[in-house]
Design goal:
The complex is a heterodimer of chains A (192) and B (201). Chain A folds into 2 domains: 3-92, Orthogonal Bundle (Rna Polymerase Sigma Factor, Chain: A); 112-191, Orthogonal Bundle (Arc Repressor Mutant, subunit A), CATH 1.10.10.10. Chain A has 192 residues and is mainly α. The radius of gyration of chain A is 19 Å and the shape is globular. In chain A, α2 packs across α4, α7 packs across α9 (161-178) and α8 packs across α9. The longest helix of chain A has 23 residues, at 21-43. Chain A has helices spanning 3-17, 21-43, 46-62, 73-92, 112-115, 118-130, 134-145, 150-157, 161-178, 180-191. The longest helix of chain B is centred in the last third of the chain and has 45 residues, at 149-193. Chain B has 9 helices and no strands. Chain B has 2 domains: 1-51, no CATH class; 89-199, no CATH class. Classes of the chains: A mainly alpha (192), B mainly alpha (201).
């Protein structure tokens, strides 16, 4: 983010804090895709994600006065988004897959062609991410899908940097175990 | 060859190491097949995760319009909510100030009373003036001949206790209850609003 963009965002934030709806709408416009991405990766369902993202922005609007510029607006917003997604999952009482067995990663699939089928694999990735504990999933999503630095993740989730690193490492370890077969096949395809 | 550096590979992949650490990691990766394999698996995982596409979400323009339609009105409430917020944070300060005032007043009174008893200061006029304005029910009962001797002494002690100690106790207990209530409300709001509860599984 450039300095002028930051300044512009600071002005918009300040206006929104004073109740300017248009300024807030501009902030929504700027951050909608990022928030939708985060909530979708957190709850794994497009419809839920859209609802959760809207809820996140409404919560942000209601709490604008509590935002302090010690963290970036994006980090602050992503924290609200992560929790909106978790709340939404709770409300929907959605049962997430808990174990590698639930994911059917090692079942009798037809063959390597089917294993490499893109849609099937992306579905398994989505489900594997959903099996992660909320705390680790949030860190992984912010890093892998939104490209936040460790510092930004720490600010966003209000946790120490060391915790960011340990949760990310844990999430990657679990995912590697769950997606081992696919990682192997993926590396082979990449090398061809 | 140096020890494995598996714990640094994630930070290396995420470009979170300084120049010196990067140099060390790269040197080690050239020498260690195990760490190299681990690093490649992390890279593959990252690429695999990036493969998962997003569904078709509304455009930023449509989305911001949808959000705008759902935004509750708060323009009038903004100033009021700021005042409420200031009042909320001033409440414990006020309670603590009241508590300190009561304690200090009590302490100063006791010190002056003790100084007066030991003859260090002469406050008999002030003290007697203060007590003379109060109606003493024990003295009244004594005048009517209903109390006397040790009963009168007990009645005077009880009267003194109810006039000085009991109000102070009531004040302090009230302040403590109000303060603890404020803390309980703050804690409940904090845990609900801040997101720790959700992020700790």
């Amino acid at each position: 983010m450039t300095i002028s963009t930051q300044t512009n965002e600071s002005k918009l934030v300040s206006k929104a804090q004073n109740g300017d709806r248009n300024a807030f709408s501009e902030l929504v416009h700027t951050h909608s895709q990022g928030v939708l991405n985060v909530v979708y990766r957190m709850c794994g369902n497009g419809d839920l994600a859209e609802d959760a993202a809207q809820e996140a922005f409404i919560q942000a609007w209601l709490r604008m006065s509590s935002y302090k510029e010690k963290a970036s607006f994006r980090s602050w917003l992503y924290r609200i988004a992560v929790n909106a997604a978790i709340d939404m999952l709770r409300k929907e009482k959605r049962i997430l897959p808990n174990t590698i067995e639930d994911l059917n990663l090692s079942d009798s699939r037809p063959g390597p062609e089917a294993m490499l089928a893109s849609s099937e694999r992306t579905e398994l990735i989505r489900e594997a991410v959903l099996t992660l504990p909320n705390a680790s999933r949030a860190v992984l999503v912010l890093r892998e899908y939104e490209g936040l630095s460790y510092q930004e993740i720490a600010e966003s989730l209000e946790i120490p940097m060391g915790t960011v690193m340990s949760r990310l490492s844990y999430a990657r370890k679990l995912l590697k175990e769950k997606l081992e077969t696919h990682l192997f096949s993926y590396a082979e395809v990449e090398n061809v | 060859m140096s020890e494995h550096i598996l714990e640094k590979l994630g930070a290396y992949l995420d470009d979170e190491l300084n120049a010196r650490e990067i140099q060390k990691v790269e040197q080690h990766l050239n020498e260690c097949a195990i760490c190299q394999e681990e690093y490649e698996s992390l890279q593959s995982l990252s690429l695999l995760l990036a493969e998962a596409p997003l569904p078709d979400f509304p455009s930023p323009k449509d989305f911001s319009t949808n959000v705008a339609l759902r935004l509750p009105r708060k323009s009038v409430a903004t100033t009021r909510s700021k005042a409420m917020e200031i009042g909320w944070w001033m409440a414990p300060v006020g309670l603590l100030t009241a508590w300190i005032f009561i304690i200090t007043t009590n302490l100063v009174g006791e010190i002056l009373g003790a100084a007066n008893r030991f003859g260090l200061v002469n406050l008999s006029d002030v003290l007697s003036t203060g007590s003379s304005t109060q109606t003493s029910w024990s003295a009244t009962l004594s005048n009517f001949g209903l109390l006397g001797g040790s009963n009168l002494q007990w009645a005077q002690m009880l009267e003194s206790f109810t006039r000085t100690t009991v109000p102070q106790m009531i004040f302090q207990i009230s302040i403590a209850i109000l303060y603890l209530s404020w803390m309980a409300i703050w804690w409940a709001r904090h845990t609900r609003q801040e997101f720790g509860y959700a992020l700790e599984n």
